[in-house]
Amino acid sequence: MNKKQMTVMVILTLVLAFMDISGLPVVLFVHCSLSDVTPYIISLLLNFLIIGFFAWLVLRSFGKDWPLGLHASRLAEGLKKYAFAGVAAGILSCVTFIIGLAPFDYQPSVWKVLIEGVLYYFGVAMIEELYVRGLFLNIVDKIAHKRENHAVIAIWVSSVIFGLGHIPGMIGMEPLVIIFKVISTIGMGLYFGAIYKRTNNLWVPIILHAFIDICALPYCFTTFSGYKSISLIGLVIIYTLLGIYSIVLMKTEKR
């Protein structure tokens, strides 16, 4: 194990996570408005660009041989084998949102739908998969490399951290909502981690992560923020089942 590279990757992971969760540095200096798009969404999108550029610089200097997986190899094969479960989960979650949020009380602009409902979620998927799966999961995997089930350990640890890492964005919500949301996110993380390790291609979880997030598009058509009970229960069921599917994948993982 290259200790210098490992140290750099750990620091990079922490810095990227902090920048992503806090929105720094862009939120301190940029306040843009465009039609009815929520202003901080534009700031976060710009912050994603800074995060990506910073990560590229560090990886280019210290992580040329890091097993990130941003290549075309096994992408089509991975999507063919493992996309169905994620696509189904995304569509079902979209249905639960529609049921919970209806009747809709807002007519968004095209800008809001494209930027806040689509582009933003592509950015979220890219950045989160970069530091949660591409960096953190591989860090844990390397640390636990002497254990026979090191890949499974890495998937579980990264998924739990992925779930807990969403708590800052839910501050102010009811405790039960936070608990249910964390459970759902952990199930989602197990899926992303499992398909990442099965394909060794980071684009596979990035694409499916983006698709699942974009299935929250119904929120662009309402002034309500939060989770209705029926939507929350539906999400827990959907992503618990997705997590179980992922555990099956992990059990058949070749170590």
Classification by helices and strands: mainly alpha
Number of strands: 0
Secondary-structure element series: HHHHHHHHH
Radius of gyration: 18 Å
Q: Compute the average pLDDT.
A: 95
Note the quaternary state here.
single chain
Taken from the alpha-carbon principal axes, the silhouette is globular
Tally of domains? 1
The tally of helices reads 9
Helical residue percent band: over 70%
Distance between the termini: 18 Å
Low-pLDDT regions = none
Query: Which strand-content bin applies to the residues?
Result: under 5%
* Largest sheet composition: none
Describe the overall structure.
39% of the residues are buried. By secondary structure, the chain is an all-alpha fold. The protein has helices at 3-22, 26-29, 39-62, 75-101, 110-143, 150-164, 175-199, 203-214, 229-251. The longest helix has 34 residues, at 110-143. Helix 3 packs parallel to helix 5, helix 4 packs parallel to helix 8 (203-214) and helix 4 (75-101) runs antiparallel to helix 9 (229-251). It contains 9 helices and no strands. Helices cover 72% and strands 0% of the residues. The chain has one domain. The mean pLDDT is 95. It is globular. The two termini are 18 Å apart.
